[in-house]
Each structure stands twice: as structure tokens, then as C-alpha cells.
Amino acid sequence: MFRPAINIAELRARARRRLPRLVFDYLDGAAEDELTLHDNRAQFAAWRFCPRMLCDVAERTLSTRWWDRPLAAPLAIAPVGLAGVFWPQADVAVARAARAAGVPYILSTASNSSIETIAREAGGDLWFQLYVINRSIADGLVERAERAGYRTLVLTVDVALGGKRERDLVNGFTQPFKLTPRVLADMIRRPHWLSQNWRGAPPLANLVTIEAPDAESQAALVARRMDASYDWSALQRLRDMWPHRLVVKGLLHPDDVHQAFSLGVDGVVLSNHGGRQLDGAVSALEVLPEISRLRPDNLVLIDGGVRRGADILKAVALGADGVLVGRAVQYGVAAEGETGARRALDILTDEMDRSMALAGVAHISQASPELMRRAAPTAS
Ligand SMILES: Cc1cc2nc3c(=O)[nH]c(=O)nc-3n(C[C@H](O)[C@H](O)[C@H](O)COP(=O)(O)O)c2cc1C
User: Fold this and answer.
1) How many domains does the chain have?
2) Is the CB–ligand 1 distance for residue 108 below 6 Å?
3) Protein residue with its CA nearest to atom 13 in ligand 1
4) Which of 36, 170, 313, 359 would disulfide-bridge 51, Cβ 3.0–4.6 Å?
5) Residue 226 resides in a domain
6) Is 249 within a domain?
7) pLDDT in tens, 147-177
8) Does residue 325 line the site of ligand 1, with CB under 6 A?
9) Residue 78: CB within 6 Å of ligand 1?
10) CATH number at residue 296
11) Which residues are catalytic?
12) Alpha helix (H) ranges present in the chain?
């Protein structure tokens, strides 16, 4: 019998065995020397629990509220573009897994299923992530998201240019695939994937008009050629135009967080984009204590490097309202489709529950910095 994966590392290994190398590297890789990618994990490892004992932890709750909305656990699915290349209809599969787990799903602008398809086929607490390729396309996407019932908009602001992702450059990762002999040889070694995905991902569904795909915008989105002139006044305009919850993703500097909240945004995601943009950027977890000391009234989420349930507990203890989970769930869908995405969410919530019990935390709202210590440097 096929045993369910025990942890996220195992789902990653299974994804690696199923995907051609160029697809796995697109998912797994990051910018330049991948310093920030590795640091995202190292920062979690640098915090240790100083657990409390003899607390009654017989009944535990992971559930929380973001604004007035209840969630089963303090996490949401991070927006991930081109997921259709991991598994057919991966966006729908992950959105359904999120709904089943009672957590929000954030649909990327660069998704392979459209805003409307996800609303119809998955439902749940849907958020839409906006990339601004140009202002008129962005306005159109925002209108569609509102019409389809999305009530939280996430503006990603850390992509003035695409990061230099060297694994993708070496492998020749493009969309649609350019079938060079090397790419073909890579794919032929992965027959299960090939039988389902040989065409690559379907078009970027949000940029397909009734007449035809908008090829130019699709190419800009794949290359992450965004509107690099987007600034605080443009954010103010978006704030004035969007009547529901607005979250800004990709901030790291405390002054930027302060400015975003003073413009009236409802939440921020401290993020370095999973190490895929500015290599050498700090990790969200590193700046979190500094930002939570400002005691913002609004939502503060972090992402980057969440691979264990204990990471979520650490983030909350250090002042975050919760986390976004990127690769951890995508490894699941890439390995086993919707079953794998559900498995990833089960693993994370089960580990989080166990860590809470062992740390003496019955309710997630009781997690506080008092529980955490910096790991002592190990003797070399
Ligand atoms: C394959 C891949 C594609 C991504 N696409 C997007 C995207 O379209 N929009 C966005 O805001 N962030 C995107 N991100 C960044 C994630 O939303 C998130 O910030 C990051 O993955 C968190 O780090 P983690 O993967 O270590 O959890 C992408 C990340 C990956 C791995």
C-alpha cells in the first residue's frame, strides 16, 4: 500500500521524483545564490521553544480570526503562478484542499485557472493576488475579482523586475515549453508527468480574453515584467477603488509597513517572495519582532520557509497573526494532486497541534514571545 507522506520533506522528494527537472527547479529554486531561500529556513531553526509544563493542554484549538473571519488554523495558501505545470488544474485542486481545511486560498494573477473558474469550482474564502503588469489590465482584474465574489485583494509589491532565477536560466524554463533535445530528454524521464502535462501549463487564464489569449501580457507576466513605476500614490488609488479588504504582500522594512497601514490597508504580508526576488533580502521572521513591537492594529502575516507546523507556532509566538504557505502545499499537489495538497495541510496542522501540546499552549492566542529563545550558537 502507498503510505501517506510523513512530512513536507517527503512530499518534496516525491514531487522531485515525478516532475522533470526544469519543472521541479521552477518550484524549488530561487534567485542567484539562493542565500535568502536558505536563510528563510535558518531563521526558523534559530528560534527555540522554552516550553511550559503542567498546563492543561487536553483540549487545544488552532482556530483563530483574521479580522472578523474565522479560520481553522492561522494559515493561508500563498499565491503561486504557473501551478498548472505541476499537475493538471492544480489551482482548483489546491483551492479545494484549502476549503476542506477551512483556510483561505490566494489565487495568483499568473494562475492557470481563471478568477471565475476558481470561484465556481472551489469556492471557500477566496483572495485574489494582483500583479500590476499595467494599470488598465490591473483595473480589469480587480473588477472581475469583485464580481466573482473575492473579498480580499492582495497586492504583490516586490516584483519591480523579475528576480534572477539561475536554475530556470540554465534549464531553459519557458512557457510554453521550448522543446529542445535537452528539455525533451528531461521530460521523457518522467512518464507519469509527461502523460498528463506534456503541453506544459495551459495559458495564464486570467489574461485570456473572449477573442484570444493576450499573448503580450502573458509573456510579460511569465517574465515578471511589471509596472516598475508603481508607487505609494498608485497604492492609494487602489485603496480608494477597492471597497473590501486590501493586503500588501512583499514588504520587509518597518517604515514601509507603517506607511502601508497609514494609507488604510487592512493587512501586510512580510515576505521576500520565497527568496525568488532580491537575493540577500532579510527573512520575514527576522524583521517580525521589530514590526510586532509597533503593535499594529491590522493583520500581520509572514511567509517564506514554512515547512513544519512548529514554524507556524513560532511565527505566531513572535507576533504574526499567521503565515502563508507556498512551496509546502505545492510539493503536495506536484506529488499527488489534490490528495497531496490535502496531505500537506494535514501534516502542517497536525504538527502544529502536537507542538502546541508539547509547548504548553492550549489555544493559539496564548502563544507569546515569552515562549521563545534564540538558539545558542553551536561550537564549531
Ligand atoms: C513556484 C512559485 C510561484 C510563485 N508565484 C507567485 C505569484 O504568482 N504571486 C506572488 O505574489 N507570489 C508568488 N510566489 C511567492 C509565494 O507567494 C510566497 O511568497 C513564497 O512561496 C513563500 O515561501 P515558501 O515557498 O518558502 O513558503 C511564488 C512562489 C513559488 C515557489
Assistant:
1) 1
2) yes
3) 80
4) 359
5) yes
6) yes
7) 999 999 999 999 999 999 999 999 999 888 9
8) yes
9) yes
10) 3.20.20.70
11) 273
12) 8-18, 21-28, 35-45, 90-101, 115-121, 135-147, 166-171, 181-188, 191-197, 215-222, 232-241, 254-262, 284-292, 309-317, 327-359
